Amino acid sequence: SQTVERGTEGAVTVGGMDVRQLAEEFGTPAYFLDEADFRARCRAWRDAFGQGADVFYAGKAFLSRAVVRWLYEEGLNLDVCSGGELATALEAGMPADRIALHGNNKSVDEITRAIEVGVGRIVLDSFQEIARVAHIAGRLGRRQAVQIRVTVGVEAHTHEFIATAHEDQKFGLALGRGTSQPEAGGGQAAEAVRRVLKLDSLELTGIHSHIGSQIFDMAGFEVSARRVVGLLTEIRDEHGVELPEIDLGGGLGIAYTPEDDPSEPHDIAKSLGDIVRRECESAGLAVPRLSVEPGRAIVGPTAFTLYEVGTIKELEGLRTYVSVDGGMSDNIRTALYDAEYSVALASRASEAPPMLSRVVGKHCESGDIVVRDAFLPADLAPGDLLAVPATGAYCRSMASNYNHALRPPVVAVKDGSARTIVRRETEEDLLRLDVG
Ligand code: LLP
Asked: Does residue 199 share a domain with residue 59?
């Protein structure tokens, strides 16, 4: 995991650098990302899945040019879900054939650009999109490789807002006719396959399923894989074609708190590979090429946010409110999903007794909570630095300018040196957009 240690005077060091020095140089709040850890995680996923499978990093978790270059160098592919992510990927030099385009409502411009540059796959999400992508590819004289995203009716055990495979949700095409019979086939997904197979400008290469996010229980993936293979079997029986690819999406959980116990990439790869192989063998299908799309599991644990304590308010008999210089604008996950984080005094050691604290931001909203319940030393004082680990995924990428906050920088730390990969916003950046 991230190389965080306690150095002189109990201050945290990351990638060989003291947080006090980092705060001095880069200011707070800021995200510090351990490049070596990021690369090691990419390699762990790559090696675990081996040559017979592809790992697509989910760019929505966090994307920047530097990250794209690291992904490229470590042999990963990239999943993008917007024109902005696609532009970043291309600008940083990711070969288009290693990019997959996602989204439930891709614009005509996004589809056109993706086909023009030659993305490796477009994941189709609706009947309208099948027609739209086919039309654009046809007009451009291309044959575009596509997968169909299906909803397999698996309810991942995670927060409802981020579970994406209920049948009653906006993504994908349902395998079954209704929620009661997901195994029955003959649903929207089968109809989508019929339509795609008739279109010359589309090449159907596989079926895609993504069941949710921050998942620990592999059982959901097992059901998903079984149902996807079930569809491949139906496709073979109805059309006489065996599709060569299966994508089981992302969603693997990480440890936000000590209670979370994530699986290793190697075990995940083994269990997914085994399930797909077993199901295919029993259906008499050739084993398709597997791909997965981890975002959080790669970048989440590699970064922490560093804040400075500004004010401290003790509510007797309740808890102490510790206000930091960021908040919901740099980490919306606590307010939005009730997400749990841990927090530690990072700038010094303390022997003081623990006090029940709530770490809150500086925004004009009482729900602006970074860490709901945490024990911090009772001698905490303004000017102390707090580190919130595991903020690499869905924090900077979901950051906002609420209250005209300036979004914090992302600083890559490696071998005792640190460099900004996404700079801090300035007031000029804010005002540049305000043209009225
Ligand atoms: N593939 C697809 C098609 C997805 O929709 C997602 C995430 C992923 C891969 C990557 O999932 P991951 O491995 O990162 O869990 N904002 C929420 C998470 C939303 C995830 C949406 N889709 C959060 O902060 O928890």
From this structure: yes
Take atom 6 of ligand 1 and give the residue whose Cα is closest.
Answer: 250
Residues 42, 25: one domain? no
Structure tokens at 14: 């990351």
Question: pTM for the whole thing?
Answer: 0.95
- CA 409 to centroid of ligand 1, rounded, Å: 22
Q: How far apart are CA 295 and CA 355, in angstroms?
A: 34
Does ligand 1 lie within 6 Å of residue 253's CB atom? Answer: no
Q: Evaluate whether 171 touches 149 at the Cβ level (below 8 Å).
A: yes
Residues 409 and 379 in one domain: yes
Structural domain that includes position 378: 4-33+301-433
Active site residues: 364
Residues 350 and 401 in one domain: yes
Half-sphere exposure of 431 (CA within 13 A, CB side): 3
Total of domains in the chain? 2
Q: Domain boundary at 248, 270, 299, which?
A: 299
Ligand 1 atom closest to Cα of 213? 15
Token digits of residue 317:
């008999």
**CATH number of the domain bearing residue 212:** 3.20.20.10
Residues 6+ away with beta carbon under 8 Å from 131: 195
CA of 34 to the centre of ligand 1 (A): 21
Is any ligand 1 atom within 6 A of the Cβ of residue 212?
no
pLDDT per residue, tens digit, the chain (436 aa), is 455 678 778 888 887 889 999 999 999 999 999 999 999 999 999 999 999 999 999 999 999 999 999 999 999 999 999 999 999 999 999 999 999 999 999 999 999 999 999 999 999 999 999 999 999 999 999 999 999 999 988 877 654 334 444 567 899 999 875 444 445 456 999 999 999 999 999 999 999 999 989 998 888 888 899 999 999 999 999 999 999 999 999 999 999 998 888 999 999 999 999 999 999 999 999 999 999 999 999 999 999 999 999 999 999 999 999 999 999 999 999 999 999 999 999 999 999 999 999 999 999 999 999 999 999 999 999 999 999 999 999 999 999 999 999 999 999 999 899 999 999 999 999 999 999 9
How far apart CA 134 and CA 305 sit, in angstroms, is 44
Ligand 1 pocket mutation, candidates 80, 166, 213, 224, criterion most atoms within 8 A of CB:
213
Among 299, 323, 358, identify where a domain stops.
299
Does the CB atom of residue 249 touch ligand 1 within 6 A?
yes
As for the ipTM of the complex, it is 0.99
CA of 139 to the centre of ligand 1 (A): 32
